[in-house]
Design a protein that fits this description.
By secondary structure, the protein is of the alpha/beta class. The strands form four sheets. The protein has a nine-stranded mixed sheet with strand order 3-2-1-4-5-7-6-8-9, sandwiched between helices. It has a four-stranded antiparallel sheet with strand order 10-18-14-16. The radius of gyration is 29 Å and the shape is elongated.
Length: 547
């Protein structure tokens, strides 16, 4: 019945870009997550193609539209442009790009042939689908992309037919977009389209952090990024940035990708962009700062994105598109330079440091239980535990995780550092918990966890010996300041927090200053849009005042 109902809809007015939404909706959620496959909405595609080339083409048209010599030259230029999407999915980028170019061509024809009889529409339409190229890992969406290109071509042909009063259909189909079913990171893009002919590289490569990548994807990443140290911590999308940067050397090709904002924040900036800037002379021409990903498909990803447009040469007119918040519309800032943090500043990069550049106390990661939850107690569990085993009271400490600290809640942990074997023999419930931890760790997939011998202790112990200042590793971007506070050594710091042993009120004051928060917002990594405070990037690189 649903199929029959669909037959009564006038599909001629529906954009072929709907295929992306339909395909994402019917994909297995686990498979979609493994592939990092999330189709790009028309709104987000326009955010990319307008500053990359479309606004410039329309501006050029306005200059030449009344010039009988230059207008045909501009039309010819338009017809020779070629576009590659090396992660094209169902072809949404190519479909919307082609549609916008055909709409521009329609305006050219209106200006060129106004008040004139057109004998053959076929002879005046110079743009065709063979200007579009794509690479797609999955075969089904690759074939959808081919069909979608023919459909959008037909729709645009109908629009021009209505304009000039002649019915025109490109049948039989002689030309097609070249959509290659292959792994874009393993194949040579030159075999898809010559870089000497190509004009623009566009797209939305897969979003997959290093923890989410399967073995094949990790191999892809190392295959492409083999010249970069610490490539193992990179997002999957960075391989497309690297490969595109290498591909455009010696050309005037411009590139723009939609990406997770992770590549412009935290440790990935120093790793990826230092190589792109120094080895490939990459310059960013425009950028959209962080905005929330959305499309019309079911099961939208909770992803926060940026758009970065770049080439291997500089440009005079650079723009940053800034959002007041993740739901607002962008406003454009004209700037002199765009660095990899997407700010108007010199191309200075912050890299991992093991110790602070200033004379301040070192920051430490918190302790990591890796215990299956057997060392952790709620308030209620603590009370019941001590009723049954009162001798355990000296080994139960308050446990400081980011959630408990920020929300003023309490949890407790069994903390057995410096506990004597004789004391443990008198606490049977604690001995039971140790056995449960031992069993949990013995079943771990990580060899280092299975081989760990001290099952009475947290897997990683980094507890301060004295009083300390606590900083949560993750906190909401809606806060003006990251909540931090002083604690004594009897409070056990979770690995969701970091501590600064020996910190005083001066350090507290600076870390809760607007100056430090400006540094945090620029340099720290993000979890979605939340601040991800880093010891090695944010704290150790911060230029503290001297007194």
């Amino acid at each position: 019945l649903a199929l029959l109902d669909c037959c009564y809809i006038d599909w001629s007015k529906i954009s072929p870009a709907i295929f992306g939404s339909m395909f994402q909706s019917v994909m297995n959620p686990k498979e979609r997550r493994n592939l990092g496959a999330h189709y790009t909405s028309e709104t987000n595609i326009l955010k990319l193609i307008k500053p990359l080339f479309l606004d410039e083409l329309w501006a050029e048209f306005e200059v030449v539209k009344n010039n009988k010599i230059k207008l045909p030259e501009f039309h010819k230029k338009l017809s020779t442009l070629k576009f590659l999407d090396p992660a094209c999915g169902c072809g949404n980028f190519l479909v919307i790009t082609y549609r916008e170019l055909r709409l521009l061509e329609l305006e050219i024809l209106r200006s060129q042939y106004k008040n004139q009889q057109v004998l053959s529409i076929e002879n005046i339409m110079w743009l065709d689908v063979d200007m579009m190229y794509g690479i797609e890992y999955e075969e089904f969406p690759a074939r959808i992309a081919e069909v979608a290109m023919w459909l959008i071509d037909h729709q645009m042909n109908m629009q021009i037919s209505n304009e000039f009063g002649q019915y025109f259909v490109r049948l039989p189909l002689k030309k097609s977009a070249k959509i290659v079913h292959d792994n874009a990171l393993q194949t040579d893009w030159e075999n898809v389209v010559s870089k000497n002919d190509l004009s623009y590289i566009i797209g939305n490569p897969p979003f997959l952090g290093h923890h989410m990548q399967n073995e094949n994807q990790k191999e892809d990443l190392h295959f492409v990024l083999k010249g970069i140290k610490a490539a193992g911590v990179m997002d999957y999308v960075t391989a497309w940035y690297y490969k595109a940067s290498a591909f455009i050397q010696g050309t005037k090709i411009k590139v723009a990708f939609v990406s997770t904002n992770s590549i412009t924040q935290g440790e990935q900036v120093g790793i990826l962009w230092s190589y792109l800037l120094s080895n490939f002379n990459i310059k960013i021409h425009f950028a959209h700062r962080t905005f929330k990903w959305s499309n019309e498909a079911k099961g939208n990803a909770a992803v926060y994105c940026v758009i970065v447009g770049f080439a291997n040469y500089d440009a005079n007119n650079k723009s940053i598109f800034e959002y007041e918040d993740i739901k607002s519309e962008a406003h454009e800032l004209k700037v002199k330079n765009i660095n990899p943090y997407l700010i108007d500043a010199k191309d200075i990069l912050i890299e991992n440091r093991s110790s602070p550049i200033s004379n301040v106390p070192k920051m430490m990661y918190g302790s990591k239980p890796t215990d299956g939850g057997h060392f952790i107690l709620t308030d209620t569990e603590k009370i019941e535990f001590l009723k049954k085993d009162p001798n355990a009271i000296n080994f139960i400490k308050q446990f400081l995780s980011a959630r408990e600290y920020i929300n003023d809640e309490k949890r407790w942990c069994i903390w057995l550092v410096d506990a004597e074997p004789k004391e443990l023999k008198e606490t049977p419930l604690i001995l039971q918990r140790i056995e449960l931890v031992k069993k949990f760790r013995s079943e771990s997939v990580a060899a280092s966890t299975r081989d760990y011998k001290f099952h009475n202790l947290f897997r990683q112990v980094t507890q301060p010996k004295g009083d300390f200042l606590l900083i949560p590793r993750t906190t909401s971007e809606n806060r003006s300041y990251i909540p931090i506070g002083f604690f004594t050594k009897d409070f056990i710091v979770s690995d969701t927090c970091q501590s600064i042993p020996g910190a005083n009120h001066f350090h507290f004051g600076i870390l809760t200053s607007a100056m430090h928060m400006a540094w945090v917002k620029t340099t720290c990594g993000r979890l979605k849009s939340d601040f991800r405070y880093s010891k090695d990037i944010v704290y150790n690189n911060y230029p503290w005042p001297e007194n």
